[in-house]
Design brief:
The chain is mainly beta. The protein has no helices and eleven strands. It is globular and about 40 Å long.
Length: 125
C-alpha cells in the first residue's frame, strides 16, 4: 500500500528554521512528483513547493521562494523541505503528496492523489 508520513514539525521562533521530511512506503519516491502543501485555519490549502520526477525541476510559491528548499534523499526514500527565516505567516499544517507526471510538465500542474496526514508547524515567539 502507498503511504506517506511527514515529520519534523514543531514550534519555532520567528526567523528560525525547520526541516520537514516526507517518507514513503509502498512505492519509490523518485518515480513520483512530490508536493508540499500547507493549510492554516480558515484558509484554503496552498501549494508550497514541489519537485518533478521527470527532470528534477522544482517549484516554489512566491511566498516562500528564497526561503524554502525542496530536495530528494533517494537512499532514504524521502523528500525534504528545508524552511528558513520562518515567520508567523508560515504557520499551518504541512502535508506532502505524491502524483504521477503524465503530462511531462512542471510539477505544480501534477494531479496529486496520495497524501500524508500532515505535521503542524507553528512560528511564534
Amino acid at each position: 500500500q502507498v503511504q506517506l508520513v511527514e515529520s519534523g514539525g514543531g514550534l519555532v521562533q520567528p526567523g528560525g528554521s525547520l526541516r520537514l521530511s516526507c517518507a514513503a512506503s509502498g512505492f519509490t519516491l523518485e518515480h513520483a512528483d512530490i508536493g508540499w502543501f500547507r493549510e492554516a485555519p480558515g484558509k484554503e490549502r496552498e501549494g508550497v513547493s514541489c519537485i518533478s520526477s521527470r527532470d528534477g525541476s522544482t517549484y516554489y510559491a512566491d511566498s516562500v521562494k528564497g526561503r524554502f528548499t525542496i530536495s530528494r534523499d533517494n537512499a532514504k526514500n524521502t523528500v525534504i523541505l528545508e524552511m528558513n527565516r520562518l515567520s508567523p505567516e508560515d504557520t499551518g499544517v504541512y502535508s506532502c503528496a505524491a502524483g504521477v507526471n503524465t503530462a511531462q510538465t512542471v510539477c505544480n500542474l501534477t494531479p496529486y492523489a496520495s497524501w500524508g496526514q500532515g505535521t503542524q508547524v507553528t512560528v511564534s515567539s
